[in-house]
Amino acid sequence: TLKGKTALITGSTSGIGLASAHVLAEQGINLVLHGLMSDDEGANLAQEFSEKYQIKTLFDNANLMDTSAISVFMDKATKTMGSIDILINNAGIQHTEAVDTFPESKWNAIIAINLTAAFHTTQHALSGMKANSWGRIVNIASVHGLVASKNKVAYCAAKHGIVGLTKVVALECAEHGITANAICPGWVDTPLINDQITEIANKESTSFEQAKYQLITAKQPVPDMMAPRQIGEFILFLCSDSARSITGSSLPMDGAWTAQ
Ligand code: NAD
């Protein structure tokens, strides 16, 4: 049983991270919630979770672009919760633009948040997991960790990078009861993709809903967006004992996107 273990989920104030937090909390897993929201909002969110699910919670809003803030955050999380048994590297941002004009600042931010932050959190979490001979690391990559799309140079570089990071961690942890996997989702219904939908709606003078359908079906054969909770359910399975031999894998959950 996973009850009483502690999961740290980066970017759990929104979208996939928040939905996954609910899925894990339903199992009695204690939570370190994290994301860009004020201390007050975060404290309220943490309190809601602990009251609803009767679990221990902690909130932190460390900016993942700041490596020393990550270090302080991870130390605080480990000290307060005892250990980090499950690490979900989920926080991420997007910017779409052709490589010719792609701003350096956006490149740096995407590489820092979507890739480098996971290196730092993993480095901090591993000693505790090794001491317990048990751990689960789940990195939320993307189909863009496996294949590319135009106008996503930094995102594809970061997501391909985290797939590589995941494989190395899996190899190094293979004898320690720790698994590391990357989930590679297609379209998931979250605020992250709103800018891309709005851009299509403006360009084609269509509604937000029509633009959304157009965006999905351009690449993904299954014509629906996934619900964020579906990713959470997949994470929960990867945390289970049944999944102990799944490690070093990059697992598409993509409505047949990468089957083509
Ligand atoms: P979202 O925008 O709903 O949530 C992003 C989270 O990351 C938020 O909690 C936000 O506060 C946090 N975050 C962003 N920048 C941060 C920073 N500098 N420091 C700390 N926290 C920061 O997005 P989402 O769609 O739920 O995305 C979650 C992950 O899933 C991302 O890695 C994304 O690339 C990946 N993903 C999303 C989709 C999709 O279609 N939505 C598809 C594949 C992969």
UniProtKB/TrEMBL annotation:
Q: EC class of this enzyme?
A: oxidoreductase
GO biological process terms, alphabetically, are: monocarboxylic acid metabolic process
Keyword DNA repair among UniProt keywords: no
Gene3D superfamilies referenced in this protein's UniProt entry, alphabetically: NAD(P)-binding Rossmann-like Domain (3.40.50.720)
- The EC code for this enzyme is 1.1.1.30
Recorded protein name is D-beta-hydroxybutyrate dehydrogenase
- By its UniProt entry, which Pfam families does this protein fall under? adh_short
Which keywords accompany this UniProt record? Oxidoreductase
Q: What PROSITE patterns does its record include?
A: ADH_SHORT
Species of the source: Colwellia psychrerythraea (strain 34H / ATCC BAA-681)
The UniProt entry's sequence similarity note says: Belongs to the short-chain dehydrogenases/reductases (SDR) family.
One Gene Ontology term of the molecular function aspect: 3-hydroxybutyrate dehydrogenase activity
Work out whether the entry's keyword set contains Oxidoreductase.
Answer: yes
State the gene name recorded for this protein. Answer: bdhA1
